[in-house]
Amino acid sequence: MKIAAIWLLWSVLAMWPVAALCDDLSDRSANIHKIVAALDATDLSANEIRSLKSYNGINVIDLSEFDSAYENQAIELALRDTDDGWAMVQTAIVANEKLKLELLRRSVAIRNIVAATMDDRETITIYVR
Predict the structure, then answer these.
(1) At what angle do helices 69-80 and 32-42 cross, to 10 degrees?
(2) Apex CA 25: angle with CA 113 and CA 117, to 5°?
(3) Which residues form the signal peptide (predicted)?
């Protein structure tokens, strides 16, 4: 019975959403499944980041909040399949003055950024570690 209770508690906590940091829409949150799906479908390449002229908002999600082996493996696989690696993404953000200044204003360390996505509402999500 004790094992079943521990498993139930773990499964509930594993699904707990992690709040997006510095979110323009503070009631939004992300879970591991949404993050992996976004990285798979809507990741931005370095060229796309460099050429961004406008966007409707920025969300920042700290991937280090996901600490289970399953979550880490899912994130690593999703990051491996993004268009460009973290170094190219960071370089592109530095080249996009508007985006760089907004992230610096929010105290987001560019050296910690590993990926970026944009949804159909033109909201950028920055993923940091």
Answers:
(1) 10
(2) 35
(3) 1-20
For residue 63, give the nearest of 73, 75, 74, 51 by alpha carbon: 75
Specify the length of the chain in residues: 129
SS3 label, residue 73: helix
Closest CA to 52 of 60, 41, 44, 64: 44
CA distance 80 to 86: 10
Q: What pLDDT digit, counting tens, does each position of 4-41 carry?
A: 434 433 444 444 333 344 443 333 345 888 999 999 88
Query: CA of 76: how far to CAs of 38, 85, 102, 123, in Å?
Result: 13, 12, 27, 23
Quote the tokens at residue 99.
């985006």
